[in-house]
Write a structure and sequence with these properties.
Belongs to the ABC transporter superfamily. ABCB family. Multidrug resistance exporter (TC 3.A.1.201) subfamily. This protein has helices at residues 65-80, 107-128, 161-196, 204-254, 257-262, 265-307, 309-356, 358-363, 367-419, 425-467, 530-537, 560-567, 582-587, 595-604, 608-613, 631-643, 661-674, 710-716, 719-731, and strands spanning 2-6, 11-15, 21-24, 29-35, 101-103, 489-497, 505-514, 519-523, 545-550, 553-554, 568-571, 649-653, 679-683, 695-700, 703-708. By secondary structure, the chain is of the alpha/beta class. The chain has a 6-stranded mixed beta sheet, with helices on both faces. A 4-stranded antiparallel beta sheet has the order 7-6-9-10, covered by helices on one side. The chain has a 3-stranded antiparallel beta sheet with strand order 3-2-5, with no helix packed on it. The structure holds adenosine-5'-triphosphate (ATP) and magnesium ion.
Length: 732
Amino acid sequence: MLFAGKFQGSILVRSKIEKGWQWMSAGTKCKQKSPLTIGQNAKKVPISLHHVVRAPPPRSTPPTVHQLLRESIQRVRNHVQGSVFKNQSRAKGLWKPSQTLAFGVGAGVALHTGWSKMNRAECKVKANGATRLLEVKKGSDLETNNGEHFWEVLRFLREDVWYLLAAVASAMLAAFINVQIPLLLGDLVQVVSEFTVREHAGNYLDAVTRPALRLISAYGIQAVCTCGYIAILSSVGEQLATRLRTALFTSLLKQDIAFFDIHHTGELVNRLSADVQDFKSSFKLCISQGLRGTTQIAGSVVCMYGLSPKLTGVLVITLPIIVLAGAAIGAVLRKLARDAQEQTSRAMSVADEALANMRTVRAFAMEEQEAALFSQELDRASGLQSRLGFGIGLFQGLTNLALNGLVLSVVYYGGYLLASNEVQAGQLMSFLVASQNVQRSLAAISILFGQAVRGVSAAGRVMEYIKMEPSIPLTGGKCILYHSLYANVEFDGVTFSYPSRPQQTVLKDFSLSCPRGKVIAICGPSGAGKSTVTALMERFYDVTAGSIKVDGIEVTELDPSWLRGRTIGYINQEPTLFATSIRENIRYGDPQATDVEVEEAAKLANAHGFIQDFPSGYDTVLGERGATISGGQKQRIAIARALIKRPSILILDEATSALDAEAERLVQDTINAVSKGRTVLIIAHRLSTIQNADVIAVLSDGRIQEIGSHTELMKRKGMYADLVQRQASHDH
Ligand SMILES: Nc1ncnc2c1ncn2[C@@H]1O[C@H](COP(=O)(O)OP(=O)(O)OP(=O)(O)O)[C@@H](O)[C@H]1O
Ligand SMILES: [Mg+2]
């Protein structure tokens, strides 16, 4: 078998040059025709290499031909079953274009292995299976910044500034007293040592009481201060976390729909929980121990200088070297921390997506695969975290080594000074305790350093989304008073591409007039852009060119919250409900609605009957995203939710597709009844449901191909008539 082309995935290949098995990564170009050397009976088989398959974990030993074939066949089968996932291209860089290749893919050879083996292979391969995750592209929106927004987090502390100052003052006082303690201890030791000399006259207790009391008071004050700053800081930290989470969640809710098209829920939830938590812990530790440590170092150095400038010199000369080395390691650790946090988010988004789509996972028996994928992502995260841990450990180890070396030099040099009577015993004692203070503080700061690295990076990630401004605001702009609202909608030369896929133009010069009181229907093939029209009407996205006007005013000038909240009733193609009671789900359309109004809306949507049949009626609590009721029931509750707000513009995107003929007829009657005085935009595949519409537009390839009433379009014998005929013959 020969192959030439561009690989979009990874595939097991054999290099003739290196005689080893390798994974060819995504995007590798293979210009020369490459012969297959596996299996002499290999036939030419049409295997698409445009599908992306995942590389297995690195092998310690080269695979056997059987192993190779089983895996290759499984990939081909996965592809046929449509369960091939996008590649992470983990083996990037292994392939050298100059190598001659031989593929381990051979459907002809597969016949040798037999189905039983293939099935066994399937089970085995599944655990390693493919990944549905995409590689995070460098420079893409998924990549987060380098903590550049960190400082902006401080504005969230403004409200607690006094508490914070009190905590800082307590921490500094505790540190200051810590600095004094060696001196007081030195005084005490000096007094005691004087009494050890025989010829010393005087009362021991009298002499010792004063320094001892001073020392005890210092200990007491230090204890109170320590308790004070820890208590205050933990309260400030909790407040800060609450404010950050609220601000982040509020900001996320404001983001454009396009933002949610590209960001995983798991990643966002991780920022809300883990990142805020990381920042809070670091903040508390840095203020308490960091501030205390720095104060102690500064104070101790001053004291030490007072005790012996010579000894202090030994310390001060070497400290900057340690600090500089620490800063260099720190830069590396910060990057590692950011990578580790992002990878953890990624792992969480795998779990989040799988749990949210549990029915799909179960239906495809993908539990093992999902577990493998999760563990694989977690492994990568734990690998990065371990590297970070090693880095932090190395940093701390080196710091400790340097600091202990310093203490040793102090003892060595101090002993010499003591022998030459340049310092006294008490002074040396004070100096040693003070230098140990410095050592302990520096060691604590070095531990803190790792935490601070995580905290800065986490705060950057949190602030990045808090600061992000959506391009479409939630509120602000013109509102049309209810009584002067005609709700004439006009699409004029609309061209549109989704921001996440700018190269694909979904709507091309789309113009449609939806006058008040008329029912406008849009039909056409799947993917034509019908739902996109409704999304633009709701202003989920802004048009690339052209305009959409309501009563002559461009939607970009209108208040989006007025437009969405009060004017448009939108029934989504895939309606989702919340995990609350049916009553509250319907009331979501109008939070002020009474129970009677809720029931009226349900009756209009032909939902009252089945709701009453539930044992708890309107108080029946639904599962997450409306699971636990049927698709048709979900649709009718969604219709009731849209109708309860009495919208002037009603948009129904495949709103009755899940209903049986009878229920559909009833809902259809309702729609006909409620459409009076409203502008109704209906999208339906089942053409029988839109026959009575005033205007039917046939949308194909982003353009309106035909427009007119049912009778007009049937007479024209064009695309619409064709579609109707095909559906009719299909139904019979
Ligand atoms: N959020 C999105 N981001 C990027 N592309 C999208 C998005 N939603 C839809 N598309 C693409 O836009 C095109 C039109 O999609 P749309 O949902 O409007 O089709 P449709 O006519 O409603 O199809 P159907 O009848 O199947 O519901 C499709 O090619 C689709 O892949
Ligand atoms: Mg659609």
